[in-house]
Each structure stands twice: as C-alpha cells, then as structure tokens.
Amino acid sequence: MFREALKTGCYDLQAARDEYRLSCGSGGMNRDLVWRFIDVQTRLITPICPHYAEHVWRELLRKDGLVVNAGWPTADSPDETLKAANKYLQDSIVLMRKLLQKQIMGSKKSNKKGAPAATLTEEKITETRVHFAPDGEILEALQKSSAGQDANFKKVQKLCMPFLRFKKEEAIAIGVQALNLKLPFGEIEVLQENSDLIKRQIGLELVEILSANDHDARAKAGSFSSLLDQNPPSPGQPTAIFLLR
C-alpha cells in the first residue's frame, strides 16, 4: 500500500490543487484553503517523508511540536453532488478538446476537396457554442419500448446509447445514485458558472451555452449545424461547435 499512499497523499492531492488553482484564474486561490492544503498534505506524507514533513511543519507552517505527533487530518463527508458536477465539467472540457481537433481535421479535409469553407485552425478558432440535450428518463429496455418499435429506431438508438454508456460508467464510479432519472446538478448552470475556465483551458474568447432543442440556438451553429446530427448531444455529454469571429 506504500505506492498507493504516496500516489494519493502526494500526487493526487497536488493534482487537485493544480486544478483548483487553474479554476481560480486571475482571482487567485483562497489563502486559508492553501494553508489547509499544506497542513493536510504535510500530515499525509509524514510516514513517507518524515524529515521533509517536519521541516514544512516547523519552518513554513510555524506549528508547535512534531508533525509525527500531530495526528491524521480530519475532514467532513464529501459533497457527492459537487464532485459529480466537477467531474462533468472536467470531462466536458476534455470532450470539447476532442471535438475541436475533429472539427479542425474535418475542415482541412473539406478544403482539400475544394470546399469554399475557410480552414479552421487552433490559432483562428476563438469562439465555441456548446449544445446539449435536456435531461430525460433512462429507457429500461430500449428495444422493447415504443421507441424500439419506431421505424427510425437507428436514429433513436444513436441518441440513447451514448447516454446509457455514460450512466453505466457513472454508476460504477459513484454507485446507485447515478441511476437517478435526472442529473443531481444543472448542466447549464455548471457550464455557465465555469465559462471563464473553459475559455482559458481551450483558448477561446467567447463561450455560449445553448439548448439543442432551441431552434434559434441551433441556428447559431450556422453551416456547422450538421455537426449536431453527427455528434448528437445527450444528458451529461454536450456537443461543442467552434466558430471563427
């Protein structure tokens, strides 16, 4: 368990700090939370790096006594909804990067065929519009349902299967609560509140959060609206479209 303790107490905790620091942007990190982080990590790594931990405890934190006698850090129960919202946000940013690369490659191929559309490059793209479908009930048996009998079943299946895979992975990660009929947080709110982070992470000037069910919002995608059909959004998995300004 030595390796697991080192990974969790040092590397994973520092990765969480780095993610928090990036999320704070120009506002900077909360001073009290930074000192709390140092205190917690120092206690966690004491069995592994005792001399270093004692140095930090006395010289940086200015604590009395020895850290080896300070005890294990304590914490309240984690906010599972907040954790789920953060995971959704981070996964969405990763997905947006992949969609950006896919759209860039698609644009280059179109131009090679003589298409009039301007080539998209990471340097040119400054704006994105994120479309996602509203929450819906998970179909217990897709093929046996009325949707499964629909003549247009393949299209229905294309919309439903990504969501079902998403819920399966989430259930493995966080348990039965993942099978609730609705996400425990609002996707629009999470993305809007963190639009500045999305812009910094991907290098954009503008981010708009829109509903794929809104005809006017869909029209904003312009000539790229077909990407919504190629990569249909589903609850928990938005679709990003990148535009030139």
Please specify the SSE layout and strand pairing.
Blueprint lengths: L1 H23 L6 H15 L4 H11 L19 H33 L14 E6 L20 H22 L12 H7 L1 H8 L3 E6 L3 H5 L6 H5 L8 E5 L2
Parallel strand pairs: 1-2
Antiparallel strand pairs: 1-3
Written description of the protein model:
The longest helix has 33 residues, at 80-112. The protein is built from 9 helices and 3 strands; from the N terminus they run H-H-H-H-E-H-H-H-E-H-H-E. Helix 1 (2-24) runs antiparallel to helix 2 (31-45) and helix 2 (31-45) runs antiparallel to helix 3. It has a 3-stranded mixed β-sheet. The chain folds into 2 domains: 2-69, no CATH class; 80-136 and 182-243. With 245 residues, it is mostly helical. The protein has helices spanning 2-24, 31-45, 50-60, 80-112, 153-174, 187-193, 195-202, 215-219, 226-230, and strands at 127-132, 206-211, 239-243. It is elongated. Residues 31-110 form the Methionyl/Valyl/Leucyl/Isoleucyl-tRNA synthetase anticodon-binding domain. It holds the Pfam family Anticodon_1.
Could you describe the largest sheet, including whether it forms a barrel? 3 strands, mixed
Element string (H = helix, E = strand):
HHHHEHHHEHHE
- Helical percent range? 40-55%
Could you say which structural class the secondary elements and strand pairing correspond to? mainly alpha
Question: What overall form do the CA principal axes indicate?
Answer: elongated
The helix count comes to 9
Radius of gyration: 23 Å
Strand count = 3
**Cross-sheet strand order for the largest sheet:** 2-1-3
> What's the overall average pLDDT, rounded?
79
Task: Enumerate the spans where pLDDT stays under 50 for 5 or more consecutive residues.
Answer: 115-120, 133-139
Beta percentage is 5-15%
Termini Cα gap? 52 Å
Number of structural domains: 2
Protein name: Methionyl/Valyl/Leucyl/Isoleucyl-tRNA synthetase anticodon-binding domain-containing protein
Organism: Salix suchowensis
Domain Methionyl/Valyl/Leucyl/Isoleucyl-tRNA synthetase anticodon-binding: 31-110
Family: Belongs to the class-I aminoacyl-tRNA synthetase family.
